Amino acid sequence: MKRLAVAALLLALAACGVRGKDQTSVIRRRLDGEPKTLNPILATTDAEQIVVALLSRNLLDYDENLNLVPGLAEEVSDSPDHLVFTVRLRPDARWEDGTPVTSADVVFTLNAVMDPKVPALTRRSFFEGLVKAEAVDARTTRVTFKTPSAGRRDAFNLWLLSAAAWKDGDLATHPRNRNPLANGPYRVGSWEPGRTLSLVRNTQYAGPAAPAEQVVFRVVPETAPAFAGLQSGDLDEMRLTFAQKKDVDAKAGTPGAPRAVTFDELSYAYFGWSNRSPLFSDRRVRRALTMLIDRESINRNLYGGLAKLANGPLPPAHWAWNSSITPWPYDPKAAEALLDEAGFRKGPDGIRHRGNLRFAFTFSLGMGSDVQRQMVELAQQSFRKAGIDMQIQPLEWAAFAAKMDAGELEAWAAALNLDPYPDLGVSWHSAQVPPTGLNNASYRNPEVDGLLDRLRSTFDRGEAIRLLGEVQRLVHEDEPVSFLNTPLTKWGVSGRIEGVKTSPYGLFLFWPGASAWRPAAGSRPIS
Amino acid sequence: MLRFVLRRAASALLTLLGVLALVFGLLAAAPGDPAAMAAKAGARASAVSPEALAAFRTLYGLNRPPLERFGIWVLRAARFDFGISLSDGRPVGARISGALPATLTLNLAALLAALALGVPAGIAAARRPGGRLDRISGALGDALFATPSFVLGLVLLLVFSGWLRLTPLFSDGGGIRGYVLPVVTLALPTAAFLARFVRSCVASALADPAAAAGRARGEGSGAAVRRALRRSAAPFAAMGAALVPSLVAGSVLVERVFSVPGAGGLLADAVFARDLPTVLALTLLSAGCVVVAAFLADVVSAVLDPRTRDAAAPLAPAGEAA
Amino acid sequence: MNAGRPRTWRAAALFAVFPLLALLAPVLAREKPWVETKTGETIVRAPVPFDPDAADLDRRLQPPSWKHLFGTDELGRDVAARTLHGARVSVAAGLLASALALLLGAGLGAAAGWAGGAADRGVLFLVNVVQALPALVLVVTAASFLPPSFLVAAVLIALTGWTDTARIVRAGAKKIREAPFVDAARAAGASAPRLVLVHVLPHALPPAVALLPYVLGAAVLTEAALSFLGLGAPPPEASWGRALAEARNLLPGAWWCVLPPAAALFLLVLSARRLGDAAASRDVQSPSP
Q1: Chain A residues with CB-CB distance to B35 below 8 A
Q2: Angle B276-304/B2-29 helices, nearest 10 degrees?
Q3: Residue A409 CA neighbour count, 13 Å, CB half
Q4: B167 in contact with A, Cβ within 8 Å
Q5: pLDDT digits (tens, 9 = 90+) for C243-283
């Protein structure tokens, strides 16, 4: 009976035949989660932002080197005191319904960002201190701030809401959030929640027409099925793991096979130590912990050589990265000497003690990546050899985040993604120690505080680079957390896609990003 | 009779309220803040000011006392208004009705397939307990039961969709064919369990004096099996009651592997985002099914076999927690 | 039909292999030789001469060989050693969870079936509530309050798994309550606890026991699902569930990381069920579920 059922099943499967119609002008992309909103100012997750990036131009866009270039605005200029910004829109900027993008849209968007009834949690912080936004004429908007701030121009890397489309009703629950009015190269075609989101070329867009007629996003949460899709031609791009990249490289050269693209991003991985804890309050101890982790070997083996050592709070891809800082070396002997020096000596149980304080702690692990967990397991082993007892505690993500924000974690693993103009004060200024801010390590150094304060009002790029370089050096000396490494991002792209460019902001959030992707003429996806 | 029905209805209502209160209490007490989770979704190291978080909490009424929030939700739910999702601002009712068709289709098909495979296999095995067929189907069943669904699903997917290209990789990629693998993945372990269940029911009925008497009268084995099945009506009904609620619950693991946007994934997302309105509404749905199914099972077994009015003995399909 | 004692004993012996392996894992799989000279030279090595947690990135993801019988995992740890040690968590969690579920279910079920009335309604209410409670909510809440460990996992699994046992035992107790021999015992002056323990449970329990192999298997699977969600036994502790969850992204490449824990889990369920079958067929009278 069972045999019969299996045979019938196989027959049914075989009868289904091979599908596939010619779709040369379609790009099929992967989302690892369902976008919850396509509202330009509420979009926060990767999935949401990479979709909106095709639908909307920013007032100012980043180019591939993270310079701000004209987008919807042809110019954003500021007054000599950096308090008043004037935004001039391009004359040909249009919404998908043909109406022009006007200063009324800019004012509406800025008011919405600042409206407490709008959950624009991440955008609002960029505009803190905004006094008012007023229309001067149809194309010109004047934006006034209370205090000057060095990174303020970057705040105008901002997608706009159409005042007409979003005007009635509650912005958080507005029906337009799922069918936004576009002003970029694409507009929303159809959306089948949880499955596919299809964008079509926006004929009203004034810039160069997008090469592909259609972009179909598909929600594929698990990486193994997505990878099978990349290989079969069902998907044209996805983020790769190191093992998958190796697989792609091995098959490179076969016609139609996907290729791997690698690039540096503004991110780094670290192990956090609570500087408030008596175990980690001494910087010699923190340095020793870093020196006990064989990061070269991790980069070589877990990342296949596609990672750089981190040397401080800015990653190598950043414009202000201080390349003169040598990362702490892997040196267990020197590390043990440092621990001895700090008073932690090995006891009869093989664990280090300082007085009554036993060097034992709990290391919290959020639901991060496989590689992160493996790094933690490796560190646990080398710590153990050096007389440090570290227990790993996996935590569910929301609980992990809540405890981290409250500064309750003793030690933890995390990866940090930075904005193109990151405010290092958020993570390292003593005024930002939890529960107030995001200085989760509770790091305090008055010298660093002073530099960070000066940076807020330093508008000269050269001077900012000098000050940031000094901040990086001081933070590196103190090693408030163990800066581990900056893995290269690995992306698999179908062989038929041309025009793929990368930036430290990823593949999609700069201009022109994925809107320049061309499915090569004449080629067809295999499948 | 009326008293019986009223009492059942009252106890059903009490059960629903109990479950909802428990879910609300557990999640409200657990660490994790919906506002922070909404902000963290971006995962970039930009500051989210405490003022912005406070505004979010006010917006969704999260700063009110928990008891008040629960009361408001329950009163609204009684009028079929399940509130607004904290994670995407859509009405919860719309979110659930979006996820339910996929889950229902998948689970219903899987249940039918499991019955079609498991019941005949169980009967066949019961005819000769300890025989070769019994041993083989038993071992096969154990293998299926013991394989985690995400491993089984992934292996099936990689073989049939990735390698043989017989089925689409993603569930929507080809009508009915897209559902074949997820249905098989869900059905096989249930079929394995059902087969063992049917086998033990039928085997014990066949070993009964009544069956021996039948044989003495010269009845064929077909008639004996039919009698055995009839005698097992009550446990079957109870088994059904245990299986029905899984129709709406969904399985987050299988859904993830096959990229199916179902109720299981919705619940997991909502729990991790501390999106209480969505979690409560989904709980209400599945709890409602449990209550209704239990009631129906009682009625069915009472009708079929008045002696066993109280002997509802469902062997639930033991499975994974999530 | 009644194969009798030898079959039961054989099944029991097969099943006992698992707790035995779990107990002996630290001896069977370890880097330290069994017998060595004073200078540290190996005379007799352990059958699996690797520590389960000993990572070595230079030998990661090696396919099975004479040196590493089941190959190595992503951190270069010996899969055979980890599977053996994994039995400690998986078998212990499984056995503990099923025992707790049986205890809880039998206790509450018997009490409800015997006492009837308000106690019965109370237990039924509890059973319904637990069955309707989404397991994920319970798991996530527990994981955010308590550090994950095999003990927590076992208790969680038991807390959600006792309801079936309770229903079965309750139904059995209800029937037996009216049986003539119980009346006789009652007339002879037996106390209520004694009646339940001596007369009711032995008759109401067998069908619930037949369910145990599945509770056991489900417990180990639940541990796998918890690991899939990142909430299983804390690293670096080896467990079958964690191994399966972590190795899933290595398919189809490193199949040797998936196969051993999957096979171990299968054999555990198989042997448990055979024991259950053998025990059930010994006692034909037992009303199998």
Answers
A1: 121
A2: 150
A3: 30
A4: yes
A5: 888 887 777 778 888 889 888 888 888 888 778 777 666 54
pLDDT, one tens digit per residue, over B202-260 is 877 777 777 777 777 777 777 777 777 777 776 777 677 777 777 777 678 888 888 88
Distance from CA of A84 to the nearest CA of B (A): 23
Q: At what angle do helices B2-29 and C135-145 cross, to 10 degrees?
A: 30
For chain C, which residues lie within 8 Å of any Cβ of chain A, measuring from their own Cβ? 53-55, 57-58, 60, 74-75, 140, 143-144, 147-148, 229-232, 234-236, 246, 248-251, 253
Pairing of strands A411-417, A267-273: antiparallel
B35 reaches A (C-beta below 8 A): yes
pTM of this structure: 0.85
> What ipTM is given for this predicted complex?
0.82
Interface partners of A (3+ CB pairs, < 8 Å)?
Answer: B, C
Q: What is the 3-state secondary structure (H, E, C) of chain B?
A: CHHHHHHHHHHHHHHHHHHHHHHHHHHHHCCCCHHHHHHHCCCECCCCCHHHHHHHHHHCCCCCCHHHHHHHHHHHHCCCCCCECCCCCCEHHHHHHHHHHHHHHHHHHHHHHHHHHHHHHHHHHHHCCCCHHHHHHHHHHHHHHHCCHHHHHHHHHHHHHHHCCCCCCCCCCCCCHHHHHHHHHHHHHHHHHHHHHHHHHHHHHHCCHHHHHHHHCCCCHHHHHHHHHHHCHHHHHHHHHHHCCHHHHCCHHHHHHCCCCCHHHHHHHHHHCCCHHHHHHHHHHHHHHHHHHHHHHHHHHHHHCHHHCCCCCCCCCCCCCC
At C226-247, the pLDDT tens digits run 776 666 777 778 888 888 888 8
**Longest CA–CA separation in chain A, Å:** 85
